[in-house]
Each structure stands twice: as C-alpha cells, then as structure tokens.
Amino acid sequence: MARFFYVARDVTGKRVAGNEEAVNEEDLISRLQGMELTVVEVSAAGKSDQGRFTSDTAGIAPGTKFRHRHFGISSTDLVLFCRQLATLLGSGVTILASLETIGKQVGSQRLYTIIKNLQKDMEGGLSFHETLARHKDVFSELWVNLVESGEASGNLAVVLDRLANYLERNAEFKRKLISSLIYPAILLFGSLGALLFLTIKIVPTFAEVFKGFNVELPRPTIILMAVSDFIRANLLFIIIALIVFGFMFKSYISTKEGRRQWETLLYKVPLFGEFFRALAVERFSSEMSTLVESGVPILYSLEIAEQSVGSIIMSEIVHKVKEDVRSGKTLSKPMEQSGFFEPMVVQMVSIGEEIGELSQMFKRINVFYQEYVETFLERVLTLFEPMMLIFMGVIIGLMVVGMFLPIFQMTKIGS
Fold first, then answer.
1. Residues 1-41: pLDDT tens digits?
2. Which domain holds residue 26?
3. 244 and 364 part of one domain
C-alpha cells in the first residue's frame, strides 16, 4: 500500500482534496469515482510536493501515469464521459479544460485519442457539436444534435446532464436484459453440450459392445446409433455449415430489405412479437423524451429519432409521422394511423400535446414499456427453466432407453 495525494470535485463542483492509502493510482481513482467524485489530480507521496495540492488545479499531476485499461469504447465509457463533462461544465469549468481533465483519467485508449482530437478541433475553431460529428461511429446523431441544441440555448451543461441520464437509463436497461438472458443461455448451451457428448462418446461405446452380441437390435437403438454415426462423421461439416449460415444470415439482415423482412417476421411471432414491438417503442419513447425535454423542436426530434431508433420499420413509421406533422397534423394522429402504437400510447401523446407536457408523457411511456419488457422476460424465463429440464429429461430418457433396451432383451433371452 502507498499513500497518494488527490484533488477532486463532487457533484456540486466543490473542490475536495486529501490523501489516501491505495494499492496504486488506478485503485484510488476507481475508489474516488465510486464516491461520485470527479478526479482532477493524483500524485504519489514523495514524488511531488504535498503543498501543491492546496491550489485549485484542473490537470493531473505531471508525475501521475494513468494506464488505460482497454482499447475499445463501451457504453459505460460514454456514460462516464458525458456525466463528468456535465458535472465539470456545471461547475463553471471551460469545455476545453473539462476535456483535458477527463482525458487524463479516461479508461479507454481510443476514447482518450478521440478526446484529444476534440480538443484539437475546438482549438482550431470548430464548435463542440461539429467536433463530435466527426466521430459518428462513437457519438450518435442524438449526441450531436442534443449538444448543438445545448450550445444554441446556452444550456450545454443541462443538456449533457439529461443526455447522461438517458445513457444511464439505457445502459441499466440493457444490463438487466443481458443479466436476464445469461442463465438461460448457459442452461441451453450446457444442455446441448451434454447431448453432443452423449451422442459422440457414450453411444459409440455401447455400439461397440452390441457388435459382440449376435442379437437383432431394436429399432430405437438402430436409429440412435445411425444419428450418432452421422454426427460423428459430419461434425466438422456441420460446424462449418452453421458458421457459414450465420455469416450469410448476418450479411442478409444487414441490408435494408433483409432487415425489414427479418423485423416483420419478428413482429409476427406469436407471444414474442409484442415483446419486440415493445422494445422498439421503448427506444423511441426514451429518445423522444430526452430530445423534447432538452428543447429540441418536435420535427427535429422526430428526424433524430428516425435516424437512431435502431429499427428500420420503426424508422419508416417515424419518417411518415414526421412528414404528417410537417404538413400540419398533430403528432398523435399519424401515430394512430400507423397501427404500430397501442391506443394507450396514442392517447398519452395526445394528452401531452394538449397540456404541453409531451416530454413527461414520453417519459411515462418509456417507464411503462421498460417495466413491461422486464416483466415479460421474468415470466418467460420462469417458464423456460422447467421446460428446458423437461425437454432434456425426455431426450436423455429416450437415449438411455435406446442404449439399454438391447441389454434388457439379452437378459430376457438368457433367462
């Protein structure tokens, strides 16, 4: 353990300084970030003068060497970047100084490089949203347009805070979905692995034993052995075929027409169709609530949502809604005519338009659909486990019967 001096700012922007024992600088930075502090400066005791931490500095100490933990940019990296930027700007720190501070403690090597490019472009005269637009593979249209709105209104810190809330909600929602699917995925692959092991290892062992007996094998055993022989002889071909099929399928649904046909099929699947439709509406309502609340005009909000909603069918519906609104119709009317949105959603949007609380209505719609998706997954996964166990029990039971049936027949003949 070593002692480190640090300077940080809390959520209100208040300067906090002190010293702590930690394993290394990364450990201390992680601990401070867990306390909702934005780290400004860190240095090991003995490497720099303790008195320099009484000054109000905005950079990491020269002796500090922060190691990037990974290369790619995760959703957590973007959430943290947005939240830190909103906090620093809200504390009165300039945007260039904020980027300098964040860049020196960011965990992603690629994001660090992008932040440096943002600083360089802004020093060259570009606005913040223009620099973000140069990295559209990282910052979506939602980022660019919300930042542009914040710059135009002079409320960039407020807009970034709302964007950070949106990103945090989405990240938390995705984490819940992924966590819900981990156990079923493990159970499914474990079951398939067990079946494959029985088929290519255990069944051939019994088949060799049966060859030593001059008896006619029952039909279930013959079928089981034939399936085992086929899989063993063509296992490599089957794996290659599955990989090729997966690649071709991914390539097909990456096209516009392929994506449309795939989504159409998903929305028509019994029971699960409503689930996928709810996911699309959840994404749309989440973006619209953030955009409208940030003061983005409704037509501009629809245009942004059209480009970033993540579903080609929903994108086409939003485009039609946008054109109808442009021609003078209310937002709720074309939403109702699309047939994609439930009457409850249409009514809530209509009420929101009438009372001037459209962003709040979209936020309530978003909360409703998030809860719907989570509840749906809980119910389906509750049924999945016993159904999977029953399926495995039946399959393994049939395999056991097929392997032991000849032994029972030989025992009967011998007696």
1. 777 777 777 766 667 777 777 877 777 887 887 777 777 77
2. 2-49
3. yes
